Amino acid sequence: MKPKISGNRYVLAVNNLAKSVDFYKSKLDFQTLWEGGGWHFLVRDSVKLMLGECPDDKPASEIDCHSYFAYLEIENIDELYNEYQAKEMDILSTIENKPWGQREFSIRTIDGHRITFGEEISSQLFEKFTEEVNTDPQT
Fold first, then answer.
1. Which residues 6+ apart lie within 8 Å of 120 measured at CB?
2. Is the residue at 61 inside a domain?
3. Which domain holds residue 37?
4. Which residue stretches of 13-139 are H helix?
């Protein structure tokens, strides 16, 4: 039988585990799965995070574009956006419809990790977008 990837977990190095855990729980509504030995595992819906404390390492806020770690597909994205605005999240890009058929916005976490959230608004837009990209002689 062919192997199947059945899920994922994001492993993130954080400088201050206690502060980061508080952020993910209070601002992003994650819950604890397990903690111990410098690690804290969190979950919200089907997304699982493994935060590991690395106090002496360069923080994600100092690695620019390399700090993007996830694109999360969302249901009811406008509600989530409003929730994060109310919690005064560091919103990097306001919510908007993209030409590839997604409605998206991005945030920055307390550690500087960046997350983009998206909801499909039109598979037809995505098909049109990919056709245009595939026929563009400059791509």
1. 73, 101, 102, 126
2. yes
3. 10-135
4. 17-26, 77-86, 123-135
- Cα–Cα dist 115/109, whole Å: 8
Structure tokens at 40: 């804290």
CB under 8 Å to 21, separation ≥6 — which residues? 32, 35, 40, 42, 51
In this structure, what CATH number is given to the domain that contains residue 129? Answer: 3.10.180.10
Residue carrying the six token digits 């919690």 = 87
Distances (CA, A) of 123 to 33, 73, 112, 128: 35, 14, 32, 9
Measured distance CA(120)–CA(99) in Å, rounded = 11
How many secondary structure helices (H) and strands (E) does the chain include?
3, 8
Three-class DSSP category at 13: strand
Model-wide pTM > 0.70: yes
Question: How confident is the prediction along the chain (139 residues), in pLDDT tens digits per residue?
Answer: 999 989 899 999 999 999 999 999 999 999 999 999 999 999 999 999 999 999 999 999 999 888 888 999 999 999 999 999 999 999 999 999 999 899 999 999 999 999 999 999 976 665 766 677 677 666 5
